[in-house]
Amino acid sequence: xxxxxxxxxxxxxxxxxxxxxxxxxxxxxxxxxxxxxxxxxxxxxxxxxxxxxxxxxxxxxxxxxxxxxxxxxxxxxxxxxxxxxxxxxxxxxxxxxxxxxxxxxxxxxxxxxxxxxxxxxxxxxxxxxxxxxxxxxxxxxxxxxxxxxxxxxxxxxxxxxxxxxxxxxxxxxxxxxxxxxxxxxxxxxxxxxxxxxxxxxxxxxxxxxxxxxxxxxxxxxxxxxxxxxxxxxxxxxxxxxxxxxxxxxxxxxxxxxxxxxxxxxxxxxxxxxxxxxxxxxxxxxxxxxxxxxxxxxxxxxxxxxxxxxxxxxxxxxxxxxxxxxxxxxxxxxxxxxxxxxxxxxxxxxxxxxxxxxxxxxxxxxxxxxxxxxxxxxxxxxxxxxxxxxxxxxxxxxxxxxxxxxxxxxxxxxxxxxxxxxxxxxxxxxxxxxxxxxxxxxxxxxxxxxxxxxxxxxxxxxxxxxxxxxxxxxxxxxxxxxxxxxxxxxxxxxxxxxxxxxxxxxxxxxxxxxxxxxxxxxxxxxxxxxxxx
Amino acid sequence: xxxxxxxxxxxxxxxxxxxxxxxxxxxxxxxxxxxxxxxxxxxxxxxxxxxxxxxxxxxxxxxxxxxxxxxxxxxxxxxxxxxxxxxxxxxxxxxxxxxxxxxxxxxxxxxxxxxxxxxxxxxxxxxxxxxxxxxxxxxxxxxxxxxxxxxxxxxxxxxxxxxxxxxxxxxxxxxxxxxxxxxxxxxxxxxxxxxxxxxxxxxxxxxxxxxxxxxxxxxxxxxxxxxxxxxxxxxxxxxxxxxxxxxxxxxxxxxxxxxxxxxxxxxxxxxxxxxxxxxxxxxxxxxxxxxxxxxxxxxxxxxxxxxxxxxxxxxxxxxxxxxxxxxxxxxxxxxxxxxxxxxxxxxxxxxxxxxxxxxxxxxxxxxxxxxxxxxxxxxxxxxxxxxxxxxxxxxxxxxxxxxxxxxxxxxxxxxxxxxxxxxxxxxxxxxxxxxxxxxxxxxxxxxxxxxxxxxxxxxxxxxxxxxxxxxxxxxxxxxxxxxxxxxxxxxxxxxxxxxxxxxxxxxxxxxxxxxxxxxxxxxxxxxxxxxx
Lengths: 532, 532
Hints:
Among the domains of chain A are: about 1-25 and about 35-195, 3-Layer(aba) Sandwich (Rossmann fold); about 430-530, GMP Synthetase, Chain A, domain 3 (2-Layer Sandwich). The first copy, chain A, has a 9-stranded mixed β-sheet with strand order 2-1-11-10-12-13-14-15-16, sandwiched between helices. Chain A is an alpha/beta fold. The model of chain A has no long low-confidence stretch (mean pLDDT about 95). Chains A and B meet through helix 1, strand 9, helix 7 and strand 16 of A and helix 1, strand 9, helix 7 and strand 16 of B. Chains A, B: InterPro entries: AMP-bd_C (IPR025110), AMP-bd_C_sf (IPR045851), AMP-binding_CS (IPR020845), AMP-dep_synth/lig_dom (IPR000873), ANL_N_sf (IPR042099).
């Protein structure tokens, strides 16, 4: 068989030859839209390759991107690694201090930045960061006033360049990208993606056990390109020639719905809170007839949400799981063939409780404290380990070596294997509540609480307790109509199978649950706010 | 990223861990069915690995399989390469002489054989073949009387073995399988698949740009496991945990329909003639509500067939193309997103004339006699070249080196690229008709003829002509109701855009078109029958 290296070009070549007439749409906060075909995208990405050469950057230079979702960011996804360089996606929700740390930790020598994020980059530099950065490329027609090195505007920079670039046979093991973890559990750590891992991951995402993407699809990733490669969607979608829709900047449920409808989106991906917001503004039995399925990840979607979409809108919600360290997609909870026909209630219970089947080539292992595999009985909790060709074997600069052991990555998640062969994340190891020697899963309790009609969002944390060591505290965002009492919540949790000793002793009502830079519930912040 | 070799185990591990409860169904000619779950399949495949060890076969031995589609053949697909050995699928439609040649050319030392095919194997041996074969394993409970070396029955052989086998990290470049070409263009040549090529091909088949297979699917490959790996379906389906249905032995349209219906098949694959037969026995607007799409390959499906399934049954037919040398899947003609909504007639014309978009990581090139890329204008014919990580870079024992050039495989097909980025096979190089210095595509004319209401099947060959060098001869199987006249066919072809000089001077009516061992029109036989 031919020795063809799996590199960025194997995902890019068809864009120009076969998919040149397929659209890429970028929606802006004012709901205006930029649209162009793959042919133009491919030409501009190759102009970017030449432009990076023209700046004199080493061919293995790390190039940061501080940008919203959009067509220029997509050009960088291919243009930076196409020329051999490494794309370091930067989380635009970091503080200037964190951003400076991450940029210098990655070794960035150039940064592509959206115009509205230039001030953030300036602040990071003013704090002593960007020490290796020689070029800042503003993703616009012109440069703003800014105290940044080598400031140049993207459009004039690429405008004069040749629109084709030699297809270089980059080695599979060559670094292609870097992403830092969101650092909910400590200092951000860098994960280095290779050409090989990115191609294999894209094949996994495009597979029917992933997001099932093909040329007939139009995909809207409502997840940031600045973190976890937007779940790999931009690479997978480009590889198969799917129409792509990006929502730049902050967005509203209404903008998401407009895009889903106008662009005839067939597959969308995002965190559960998006789908809760969207559901609030959908009406009628088949409000989005083109949408084949929604992929929901980042947190466990409440069963009420899965039920709403299935029964009211006829749209399946598929639960996905992954981490920065797993590229990120590791599992998707497709119903097996024989489960498709279950009655609604059973199907929904199954979908809500069985969170994942591994994407092909990924292996999972759930282990007890002694490292032995736990029984997959739907009860026993264990530490989740993962292994696969797109799973990290180390962090940048040798950080966190303790998480890699015996060829496996220890995720820091606590999981349960079901008798049906699915697994489910019970908690982050550090979010488990240890009460009287027994464990309580905060994730399970949150899911149950969010199924209550008067609860919009819920996060459960541990607070210290002299007798039981730890006890659960429920932080709840009530609905508009009524605020549930603690007794009502107890009754509700009991009906959902929680034992008396597991029930939270206290509930705190909040306007919103604080979130991390990638939109997850920020339990670190909640613990700081409710120390006892 | 972890250095996990892409080998058979990366497609097999989840069968036991996650998909143990998914069914594998084998239908026999009497319409009885064998069914068992993946868990049992995985245990038995590992017993087979131990059994092959127990016979003392070298760990890189070539093991032939002469078998119909079915669960034991599937066990061999994993059990033979799982233990490091090489599975050589043998075409059961070969003559004893051809079979003997192919077995010895592959270097087979053991052969797995279905009971009803034992006599064929005996004949091949009686002709002096099987010279390296030391073991013949009959896929049954017991052995028949037969003059074959090391005769042993499969069931008792594996029965006592351990049901788990160590996951060996076989290298990616290790041979996994061998398949011989069907030899329509000369002596059969051997193609060697590696562990890497097979895993990547399975990911391509499972992708949304391939057959789009996932855990929710039930797949029925009506293509032989003895040739072209049943289009890679058994590997891809096992990898993603899809329910699998196999039809052993010869089958009828009625048996296919029963399987599609009873087993709730979602994806089926087969040659166009199967779908013509099946269409004849389907009734009602949605006769197969579970069937998401049909993949049709091996020959161009007539537009009338695509229209029938789309308009009458609501089932999309997707055209696929590939060769033994391309593992075999190289392209599938998914409609791009913006083409989905075309009116029926336009859609069908598009689907019938635009035969393919390459599966991810595969590259195509259409070249003129000087090796320059032809213009993709829907008109210009050229030689089709293909390249990719699951495309052969050589034949076994160094045969046919002239087909590999500059990192590409020259397919021997003549193709046309369309302005829309699709390509279409116009003909086999040797089936093109050169009349008066101009080329006539036999494939195009066949497709047009088969669109005539009174034509069931049509094959067009060249016959020598003193003036024009070659002229087309139409071989036609007429419908039951009427036999069309030559004039009527001329009128019909003219309406389909054929020029006067292209029209066949003669038509021969046949009861059936002769077929090759893999079910394609056997033009070699037609040319022998109609030399002038």
